[in-house]
Amino acid sequence: MNGAPVRSITEDEVRTFESDGVVLLKGLFDAEWVAFMQGAAEKSLADPGELHFEFAAERKDPGRFFFETFSWLHNADCERFVRHSPAAAIAGALMRASKVNIFFDQWLIKEPGTPTETPWHHDLPFWPVDGSQVCTLWLALDPVTVQTGAVEYVTGSHRWGKRFRARSFSGVNRYDEDLPEVPDIEALRDGLSFVQHELQPGDCTVHHGLTVHGSPGNFSTGMRRRAHVTRWAGDDAFYHPRPNIQKIPRDPGIPAGAPLDCDLWPVIWRA
Q: Per residue in 132-173, pLDDT tens?
């Protein structure tokens, strides 16, 4: 399994990430990593950690939409990926960071015949972290198409200078921060720019923590959509706790405003 990207991140890719808030990177994880993480997915599905949800079931939809955060703390295969895959180096290159902390990892698995959509949202308002260098690497473990639930991004939305209230994927309100609601993206579609990438296993996208995005359900009758997601923070990221946001496994033991360097959010990569 490759410990470094199979090629260097190009300056054009960095600039696309900076301008659009998302970039597609083809084939940076080898077939061994894909097979290894497919196995890791099955381990989490069979024996999930405390911070998992079944969103299709909560919404009384058919199929299964499995969501789990901080998998790397209980799934040794996910820990190996966090510490030894190319993911941290990729995030560091795109953010032009000198060091990268793991914030958390996550499973987003939509089984065939699951109509549950992922609502329009951006990530930072969910989390007790802030800063301009925060990103998400979304690794495909199955072929991802529009039919199976490819993520759609509003390009440039990370530069709107706005924060929107976190939205629960289940439709049950779990968040209560004093922020405006996400705009009606569908009603605004004609005036916005979008990108929706189809991926093969081993491809990934990386998006900024403020890029607005969402995805349809998996309407395939036989194709799974398993994605392993890692959230990364760079030099300027800091601890920003607030009430009524996404749960974390434990108190990180650092004061508000501090860099994320701690046991819960360790430094994984340095330039």
A: 999 999 999 999 999 999 999 999 999 999 999 998 887 667
pLDDT in tens, 37-67: 999 999 999 999 999 988 788 888 899 999 9
DSSP string, 14-74: HHHHHHHSEEEE-S-S-HHHHHHHHHHHHHHHHS--SSEEEHHHHTT-SS-EEEEE-GGGT
Q: Are 116 and 217 in contact (CB under 8 A)?
A: yes
Are 199 and 23 in contact by the 8 Å Cβ rule? The answer is no
Predicted TM-score (pTM) of this structure: 0.96
Among 217, 200, 229, 201, residue whose Cα is nearest residue 107: 229
Determine which helix (DSSP H) or strand (DSSP E) holds 82, and give its type and residue range.
Answer: helix 76-84
Taking the alpha carbons at both ends of the chain, their separation in whole angstroms is 21
d(CA 61, CA 30): 34
pLDDT digits (tens, 9 = 90+) for 20-32: 999 999 999 999 9
